[in-house]
């Protein structure tokens, strides 16, 4: 087998060719690189968040998780959309960190974000817990939105009278 190209994702399968859960969820970093703009090392690994493995970068000693991935996994059914999440982040005074181009490539390679995505943001686990708590306590149900126009309702006796009048007027009864 040829050695992998520089920058290509690591092989996650064993010699049998079939990936196993042990090879997919390992504690050691999946990717390690040094940014040319700083002297810090950015490391990516899968971490457990609420029982699910999520892509995480260790940047300057702080663990940051992929915001679009945790949105898809935990927040999508709680809020109207990603725009709502960014509005909540602003209200909660949480500033996500913008991914570098290299981090976006790594996240795409892991399947944490969709192939066409070229921008991504990261937040700390503590900030995610704050955001998650806000989303779950808001009692917002996107399927139970108010209608655009309010329906006019009439009391049943008047409605029956009007219906009878209209039917007589049109010679139906």
UniProtKB/TrEMBL annotation:
It is found in: Nucleus. Keywords: Nucleus. Residues 34-136 form the SKI/SNO/DAC domain. The keyword Nucleus applies. GO terms for molecular function: DNA-binding transcription factor activity, RNA polymerase II-specific; RNA polymerase II cis-regulatory region sequence-specific DNA binding. This is SKI/SNO/DAC domain-containing protein. InterPro entries: Dachshund_domain (IPR052417), DNA-bd_dom_put_sf (IPR009061), SKI/SNO/DAC (IPR003380), Ski_DNA-bd_sf (IPR037000). CDD domains: DHD_Dac. Belongs to the DACH/dachshund family. It holds the Pfam family Ski_Sno_DHD. GO terms for cellular component: nucleus; transcription regulator complex. SUPFAM superfamilies: Putative DNA-binding domain.
């Amino acid at each position: 087998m040829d050695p992998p190209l520089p920058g290509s994702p690591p092989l996650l399968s064993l010699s049998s060719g079939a990936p196993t859960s042990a090879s997919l969820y390992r504690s050691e970093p999946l990717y390690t690189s040094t940014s040319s703009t700083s002297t810090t090392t950015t490391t990516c690994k899968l971490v457990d968040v609420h029982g699910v493995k999520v892509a995480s970068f260790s940047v300057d000693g702080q663990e940051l998780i992929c915001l679009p991935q945790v949105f898809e996994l935990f927040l999508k059914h709680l809020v109207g959309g990603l725009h709502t999440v960014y509005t909540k982040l602003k209200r909660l005074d949480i500033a996500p960190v913008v991914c570098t181009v290299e981090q976006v490539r790594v996240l795409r390679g892991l399947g944490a974000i969709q192939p066409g995505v070229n921008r991504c943001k990261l937040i700390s686990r503590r900030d995610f817990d704050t955001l998650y708590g806000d989303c779950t306590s808001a009692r917002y149900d996107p399927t139970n939105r108010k209608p655009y126009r309010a329906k006019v309702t009439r009391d049943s006796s008047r409605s029956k009278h009007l219906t009878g009048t209209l039917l007589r007027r049109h010679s139906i009864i």
